[in-house]
Fold this sequence. Notes:
Blueprint: H1 3-12, H2 18-28, H3 43-52, E1 59-65, E2 71-77, E3 83-92, E4 95-99, E5 103-105, H4 114-118, E6 120-123, H5 126-144, E7 148-153, H6 163-174, E8 186-190, H7 194-203, E9 208-212, H8 218-224, H9 233-247, E10 251-257, H10 265-278, E11 284-290, H11 303-315, E12 319-322
Parallel strand pairs: 4-7, 7-8, 8-9, 9-10, 10-11, 11-12
Antiparallel strand pairs: 1-2, 2-3, 3-4, 5-6
The structure holds iron/sulfur cluster.
Iron/sulfur cluster (SF4) binds near residues 110, 158 and 191.
Amino acid sequence: MDLKKLSSFLEKEGVPPFRLKQVRDALYKSFAGSWDEVAALPAPLREKLKGEFRFRSVEPAETQVSKKGGAVKFAFGLKDGHLIETVLLNLLPEKWSLCVSTQVGCPVRCPFCATGRKGLKRNLSQEEITDQFLAAAAYLRKSSGQKINSVIFMGMGEPFYNYDSVAEAIRAMSDPERIGLGQRHISVSTAGHVPGIRRFAKDFPQCNLAVSLHASEDVLRNELVPLNRQYPLSQLAKALNDYIFSTRRRVFVEYVLLDGINNSRSQAAKLNSWLRSVAAPKYFTVNLIPYNRTGGPYKAPAKDRVKVFAGLMEEFGFEVTVRKSLGDDIAGACGQLAGK
Length: 340
Ligand code: SF4
């Protein structure tokens, strides 16, 4: 909800300012889902506001819970009829992370990604991004009494192509008067949008940066992450080096493992060299993501090949994690979000 518009409306109607705080608390602290749930307001005011302001900009259209556990996927309807997807992930006991979308579709068009195949429909507004959090938080509170501990901007879309709305959403999520999540619990994942990385370093040095690398040679990266044609690896290396120098923060390197495409021993060695050309290994966590099926010609490597690649990167001195494929049975794993 646009609280600035609501504030002017209430002022015009001669409603005392504490009513705005009641709405804000209902929205951000109690995760109310409708005007009827804002019990602190007098009923006639609630009725008037119902006609003027949509309570949430996203409406749950479908909620799928993974049978394997650890993941819940929401399809949210937007007021223009588009559908976006958002995933809650239970990565550690009682610790929930929310993967939010920033665009309807994505203009980057990575060929292994279901979102990318749809192309871009439009950017999401700040409200539409923040409301994914509020709706998921309300679900989690009702279903288990638990809360969301961290947010990652890694759902549908390239966040830095929608920088202003993403920045406003980060402010809403980290503002103690609103959601109040620490910025260290907020991560933004980019496909390598160099101007976005530079702005992000200045605006949000406390947030985490993840970069979807997937290849460390331009020819292959041009194919796997077409944004590389605009911002090739040399430019990305410089931007990441500047980011690390100015923030002193570790960068999370996302690397989807596609069997026979980017997972050979020599490609691990090239990844090592490229990362070292940016900064020392202590500044990176390499997050390996065995490919999740999205149709198309790619295959996930066998478990032992994932182990070999991970082992090599560890021997090169990097911290390495292998992403669990949470939510793959509900098409909610990395790369599988599609929306409409
Ligand atoms: S992987 Fe990310 S950047 Fe690439 S098409 Fe999918 S959503 Fe866009």
